[in-house]
Design brief:
Elements (H helix, E strand, L loop, with lengths): L9 H8 L9 E4 L1 E3 L2 E8 L2 E8 L6 E3 L1 H6 L5 E7 L2 E15 L2 E10 L12 E3 L1 H4 L3 E5 L4 E4 L8 E4 L1 E3 L2 E8 L2 E7 L6 E4 L7 E2 L5 E5 L2 E15 L2 E11 L10 E3 L8 E5 L4 E5 L1
Parallel strand pairs: 4-9, 5-8, 15-21, 16-20
Antiparallel strand pairs: 1-11, 2-3, 3-4, 3-7, 5-9, 6-7, 7-8, 10-11, 10-22, 12-23, 13-14, 14-15, 14-19, 16-21, 17-19, 18-19, 19-20, 22-23
Amino acid sequence: MVHIGSAWNVALLCSALCETTLAIGPFRVPFQLEGHLIVVQVEIPPLKGLKFALDTGCSVTTVSPRVAAKLHLKGERTDVVSWGETVSVRRILVPYFRIGSAEFRDIETQIATLPPAGDVRLDGLIGISLLRHGCWTIDFEAGQLTLGSDERRLGNTQHFYPKLPMILLSVNIGGKSVRLLLDTGTLGLVLYKKSGVPLRKTRRQREVKPSPGGFLHLEPILLDYFQWGESVWQQLPAYLLQRDSRDSKVAGNLGIAVLGVRVFRLDVKNGVVEWAR
C-alpha cells in the first residue's frame, strides 16, 4: 500500500495514548502475498477474517471506512501526509486487535480510504503504531509471518535510523549513500525526483497508481548498482516519482518484495532489520 507516513510526532502521541500489548510468542500466522502486499487475517470483535496488509510505510494502523462503520467507530478528524500530500483521516483508539493468537489492546488507529489493491479488497493496514511493539519475521518462501522471537540467523543485519514513525534504511545507489523509507506497502523501489542518485531511464511507459494522496505518476527506471548492507543488486528495476519529498533526508521508499529476499525480519523495538537472500 502506498499510504506513507503521518506527522512526525505520531510516535510520541502513540506512547502517550496507547499501552499496546503483544502476547508472549512466538506466534506463526500464514499470509497471502497479493502482488507486493503481505496480507494477513485480523480479528476486531465482532468482525473476523478481516484482510489487513503489513505496511511499514504507514505510521498508524488503519481501518477502512466500511469496517469502521460496522464497528461504529468515528474518531476525531486530523491531517496526515501521504506521498507528500495532505490527507484527512479520523483518529481513534481500538480496544482489541488479534492476529492469529497474538492479542493487542488499545491500538492507536486511523480511519482512512484505502486505494485499490489489485484483486483483493483490503479492510485495513497494520502500521508502525502496532509494529513498534515487537519482532516480525516474514518468510516469503513459507508464506508465514512470525510474531515474537525467531532464533534463525539470517546473515544480514542493519540498525536503522531511529526516527519513528519512519523506518529509514541506509543504502548505496551507484556510489551515493542515501536513506530510504522501509515501506512494505509500496509496489517496489520508488525514488523522489530530487534523490540525486545515478539512474537509467527505460523505454517502458509511465505508470499511474492510486494513493490516498491522489494518483502517483511513476517513471520506470533501472539502477545499475544497489547495495544494502553487504548485499548487492545489479540492474534493479525501480520507479522515479515526479514529486519531491517533504523530508530532505528521505530519497525514496523501499518495498522489500522487489529485492527477492527469502526472509525478512523487522525488530522495531531494538531498531534492527535482518534479511536472507
